[in-house]
Specification:
- The protein is an alpha/beta fold.
- The protein has a single domain, classed as 2-Layer Sandwich (Nucleotidyltransferase, domain 5).
- About 30% of the residues lie in helices and about 25% in strands.
- It contains five helices and seven strands, in the order βββαββαβααβα.
- The strands form two sheets. Strands 3-2-1-6-7 form a five-stranded mixed beta sheet. Strands 4-5 form a two-stranded antiparallel sheet.
- α2 crosses α3.
C-alpha cells in the first residue's frame, strides 16, 4: 500500500502516481484522459441558436445559448477524477494526497472531492505539469514532512 498518492491533472488528462516516501521516485499507477477536451466549441453543438422577436416592436435577435461547453466538459472530467480518488481512498490505496494542477482546474477538482478525500490533501502544487517528465514533478514536491499539511 502506498501512503502518498499524487494526482497531476489538467482538463484533458490526469496521471496518478504513488510515492512510498518523500525521497522516493513517483511511480505511475494510472492515467485518465478526456478526448472531448480537445474538441472545438463548434463540435459540442450542431446548430445555430434560434431567433426570437422582441416583446415590444418588431426587432428580431438571436437567442443566447450556453456559452461554456468546455467548462461543462471540464467539470465532468473533474468529477471522474474525484470519483477515482474517492474509490482508491476507500480501498486504502493511499492515506495522503498531493494535488498538482493549474489554478482553474484545481479549484474545479476540489469542489468535486468528497469531504474525506479533501481531508487527505497534504500538499498542492499550483502548476500544470501533466506533460512534464517525472523529474520536473519531483522538483515541485515537498522533501520533508514539515512541508506537508497534517492530514
Amino acid at each position: 500500500m502506498s501512503r502518498i498518492r499524487i494526482v497531476v491533472a489538467d482538463q484533458a488528462e490526469a496521471i496518478f502516481y504513488d510515492l512510498s516516501s518523500l525521497k522516493a521516485r513517483p511511480t505511475e499507477v494510472a492515467r485518465m484522459s478526456d478526448p472531448a477536451a480537445h474538441l472545438h466549441d463548434r463540435d459540442f453543438s450542431s446548430d445555430r441558436p434560434g431567433r426570437s422577436y422582441e416583446s415590444v416592436g418588431g426587432a428580431r435577435h438571436a437567442i443566447a445559448r450556453e456559452n461554456e461547453p468546455r467548462r461543462r466538459e471540464a467539470v465532468k472530467f473533474a468529477k471522474e477524477i474525484a470519483g477515482r480518488l474517492d474509490q482508491d481512498r476507500r480501498k486504502k490505496e493511499y492515506e495522503q494526497l498531493i494535488v498538482v494542477a493549474a489554478a482553474p482546474f484545481r479549484s474545479l477538482m476540489r469542489t468535486e472531492f468528497s469531504t474525506d478525500t479533501t481531508a487527505c490533501i497534504v500538499h498542492e502544487v499550483p502548476k500544470d505539469l501533466v506533460h512534464s517528465p517525472v523529474e520536473v514533478l519531483r522538483e515541485h514536491l515537498p522533501t520533508t514532512a514539515q512541508e506537508l499539511k497534517s492530514a
